[in-house]
User: What shape does this take?
Amino acid sequence: MGKRKRLVAEARKEANKTSYFAKLNSCPTSPRKMRQVADLVRGMDAYQALNVLKFNTREASTRLEKLLKSAIANYEAKSNTRAEEGVLFVKSITVDSALMQKRLRTAPQGRGYRIRKRSNHVTLILDTKK
Assistant: This one.
């Protein structure tokens, strides 16, 4: 590894020590459906976002709720303080597409239709109100 690359990597690691985040990789939900739920809670207070996700009927909301709880636990572990209501908020949620499983469905007259089973990566970053 070159010197410049090492310096950038060390700077990124130092920045990660002070940020509170959680990642969900290869979630078997289409990115569009996950983005619709993520847009609901972006910028909200963390515990208010938990309530919104808990009572939402979409399947993606249960996965995001679990991810948000994990991010709150990461905050508590890194800062050695209890997460109180009104302190944390959802700084950003990014939903990126991941691998796509390609399947073939039989169709009439000897044809085959493609089925694309999509998945996504979700990164949730929390921040404290100052």
